[in-house]
Amino acid sequence: MTEPRSEQVVVLAGGLGTRLGPMGADRPKVLQDVLGRPFLDVMLEPVAASGLRRFHFCLGHLAPRVSAHLATLPAEWETTAETEPAPLGTAGALLHSVGHLDEQFMVLLGDTYLDTDYGGLFDRFPPDSLGMMLLTRASNDVLPNVGVRDGTVTAYDKNGVPGGLTDTGVTLLRRSALDVLQRGRERTDLHELFHALMGRGALAAAVTGERFFDIGTPRRHQALATHLSAGTAKEAGI
């Protein structure tokens, strides 16, 4: 068992889940069923296995249901949560929770699964950077959307970056990185924060060969279930 680490993980769990269609109408994305388990438990399993035990949850859509589930998480985990009064965007949710944030923390999108050494990423966070994105070389359902040069992110475009890498939905930030955002806006998303940090040369890149999965659509939800089922069968020697 990996020794516990002290760093904080922030989970963005307030999304509306509109791309899930009927699946997301009465169940938040983080509680979608994946092989008989809530997705949140599945996604946090490799995170906790790498030693991270301190979590802050940014809640929104169907927050009471998520809050009730948080009470079932392991007792040794330290958890806090804050519910946004209206959809504020992925970066807006961080601004709303700024009083809960450590000087440095990890951000996880609440619909993304990746089996990697999350704790070790903190050891790779350059001290002169305000943020660090974890990118993958592996092929997946998302177009390569990030350009990198000399370990620094130089391009970010959701519509694709030719020859680029793919954002896994895992980012390390220093709390001071949020100072670059304009306060008081109705909605602010992470891509705006990334572009602001890129403009300062302050957004580093870490690269993995592991594939990541998101459950944002029914097809992608099924892709994760198929992947996990294959891994379980392999471990059982089937």
Structure description:
- This protein is α/β, with parallel strands linked by helices and 238 residues long.
- The protein has 6 helices and 13 strands.
- It has helices spanning 39-49, 63-70, 90-96, 118-123, 190-199, 218-235; strands at 5-13, 33-34, 37-38, 52-59, 78-83, 104-109, 112-113, 131-136, 146-149, 152-156, 166-174, 203-208, 213-214.
- It is globular.
- It comes from Nocardiopsis tropica.
- InterPro entries: Mannose-1P_guanyltransferase, NTP_transferase_dom, Nucleotide-diphossugar_trans.
What is this structure's SSE topology?
Elements: E1 5-13, E2 33-34, E3 37-38, H1 39-49, E4 52-59, H2 63-70, E5 78-83, H3 90-96, E6 104-109, E7 112-113, H4 118-123, E8 131-136, E9 146-149, E10 152-156, E11 166-174, H5 190-199, E12 203-208, E13 213-214, H6 218-235
Q: TL;DR of this structure?
A:
The protein has 238 residues and is α/β, with parallel strands linked by helices. It has helices spanning 39-49, 63-70, 90-96, 118-123, 190-199, 218-235; strands at 5-13, 33-34, 37-38, 52-59, 78-83, 104-109, 112-113, 131-136, 146-149, 152-156, 166-174, 203-208, 213-214.
**DSSP helix count?**
6
Helix coverage percent of residues? 25-40%
The main sheet orders its strands as 5-4-1-6-11-8-12
For the record, give the distance between the C-alpha atoms at the N and C termini, rounded to a whole number.
26 Å
Radius of gyration from the CA trace? 17 Å
Query: Which shape, going by the Cα principal axes?
Result: globular
Mean pLDDT across the residues is 91
Low-confidence stretches: none
